[in-house]
């Protein structure tokens, strides 16, 4: 087994693994649970690794370059909740779920898409 890529979030590792498997290369994600238990040591032990078989290593490395290029051109999606840490703190202090007040309305979404066109 050869390590092709290292990630600091398991979501990123699984996205790359899915990309490899869509290209016909069997891949595995290692050290995911360790990074979840000891998240503050993720960099110390090298992150979450995506590994492939020795015979697929060269093709997987080429696909990793392609994957990185495709991720650079991917659009950024803004989270639907604005200022959620502040809203969560106020909700805890007052004992009332104010998370609904921090959400965008449908009118905001329409305004945002019109501005991008």
Mean pLDDT: 77
Strand content: 5-15%
Q: What is the 3D shape? A: elongated
CATH topology of the largest domain: Alpha-Beta Plaits
Strand order of the largest sheet: 1-3-2
Q: Give a count of the beta strands, DSSP E runs of length 2 or more.
A: 3
* Assembly state of the chains shown: single chain
The total tally of domains equals 2
Description of the structure:
By secondary structure, the chain is α+β, with helices and mostly antiparallel strands. The chain has 2 domains: 2-72, Alpha-Beta Plaits, CATH 3.30.70; 84-116, no CATH class. Helix content is 49%, strand content 13%. The chain has helices at 10-22, 32-37, 57-72, 84-94, 106-116, and strands at residues 2-7, 27-30, 48-52. The chain has a 3-stranded antiparallel beta sheet with strand order 1-3-2. The longest helix has 16 residues, at 57-72.
What is the element layout, followed by pairings?
Elements: E1 2-7, H1 10-22, E2 27-30, H2 32-37, E3 48-52, H3 57-72, H4 84-94, H5 106-116
Antiparallel strand pairs: 1-3, 2-3
What is this entry, summarized?
By secondary structure, the protein is an alpha+beta fold.
């Amino acid at each position: 087994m050869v390590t092709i890529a290292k990630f600091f979030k398991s979501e990123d590792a699984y996205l790359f693994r899915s990309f490899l498997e869509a290209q016909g290369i069997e891949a595995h994600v290692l050290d995911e649970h360790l990074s979840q238990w000891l998240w503050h040591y993720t960099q110390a032990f090298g992150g979450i690794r995506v590994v492939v078989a020795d015979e697929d290593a060269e093709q997987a490395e080429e696909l990793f370059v392609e994957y990185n290029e495709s991720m650079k051109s991917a659009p950024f999606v803004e989270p639907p909740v604005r200022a959620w840490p502040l809203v969560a703190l106020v909700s805890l202090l007052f004992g009332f779920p104010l998370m609904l007040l921090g959400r965008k309305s449908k009118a905001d979404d329409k305004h945002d898409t019109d501005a991008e066109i």
